[in-house]
Amino acid sequence: KSGPYKIPVVVHVIHRGEAVGAGTNISDAQILSQLKVLNDDYRRQNEDASSTDPAFVSVAGSMDIQFVLAKRTPEGFATNGIVRVKGPKSSYTSSDNYTLKSLSYWPSENYLNIWVCNITDYLGYAQFPQSDLPGLDNSSSNALTDGLVISYEACGSIDDGNFNLDPDYNKGRTATHEIGHFFGLRHIWGDENACTGTDYIDDTPNQASQTTYCPQSSISDACSPKVMFQNFMDYTDDACMNLFTAQQVQRMIAVLENSPRRATLL
Ligand code: ARG
Ligand code: ZN
Ligand code: CA
Fold it and tell me: What is the C-alpha separation between 149 and 115, in angstroms, rounded?
């Protein structure tokens, strides 16, 4: 199998009973804007690709992938790929993982499940793939929780009049980042505040720790003369992220073509 990789996506909006387009029950337009961000970011068609630090342009990568909202339900009925369910709670945390996802779930062998809700302890989180690659675990993982959860305040990139996007996370990059994890990428600094931590990727500079906010100029640290804080797998604000590297793309393709509940999406 080779590209273009077409990924069927189902978005489960777990809301509090608001009308469609109000509060946590985000609009179809907001969800469509999220899909556009994913397609732009992964293919490096994002407008701010031109803002990538010139020092890193040569290692920037693009992936021949297309995220499409599902057109058929698991039962074969027509759908727009968006499921709306009134949930039992007004907010959720990552410890609600299984109960949240059991409110609405489509087989993760065939769909990339994205749950959008009022999650309060993270902007989002994803389930890593089963894989032999370094930095991943090949023991069996739960199919029923596979996919990603993102906050309704960080989903999509348009202001549709519902004014609910967090100003630091209003460009849809939370889902870009979480799908990076879903395809096997680790945080660029290696989750350890030392140069021993690694993301198992050679063309991202070794980085001591996470970068937050939006640095206005080049950063050096103890591990490298220039930190790649514009990488989607760092912790900068949405407005400052704009690239994956070629080797990150290679690793995601290896996962997509070989891992359970990834290869079967294709
Ligand atoms: N904190 C989340 C994670 O570790 C997501 C970070 C996303 N960053 C962003 N600028 N949207 O997976
Ligand atoms: Zn992360
Ligand atoms: Ca690296």
Answer: 5
Between strands 112-117 and 148-151, the pairing is parallel
In the predicted structure, residue 159 carries a pLDDT above the cut 80: no
Q: How far apart are CA 9 and CA 265, in angstroms?
A: 9
Residue bearing tokens 């945390």: 93
> Distance, CA 236 to ligand 1 centroid (Å)?
8
Catalytic residues: 178
Which of 266, 262, 265, 264 is CA-nearest to residue 131? 262
Of 71, 129, 128, 73, nearest to 263 by C-alpha is 129
- Ligand at shortest distance from the CA of 196: 3
**DSSP percent split of the chain into helix, strand, coil, nearest 5:** 25, 15, 55
Strand, coil or helix: 239: helix
Tell me the pLDDT band of 256, cut-offs 50, 70 and 90.
very high
pTM of the model: 0.98
Among all bound ligands, the one having the nearest atom to the CA of 123 is: 1
Instruction: Report the C-alpha gap between 240 and 195 in whole angstroms.
Output: 23
Structural tokens at position 93: 């945390």
Determine if ligand 1 sits within 6 Å of the CB of residue 174. Answer: yes
In eight-state DSSP terms, residue 82 is: E
| Owner of token pair 């907010």 | 91
The string of pLDDT tens digits covering residues 63-107 is 999 999 999 999 999 999 999 999 999 999 999 999 999 999 999
Pairing of strands 148-151, 124-126: antiparallel
In whole angstroms, give the CA distance from residue 15 to residue 85.
6
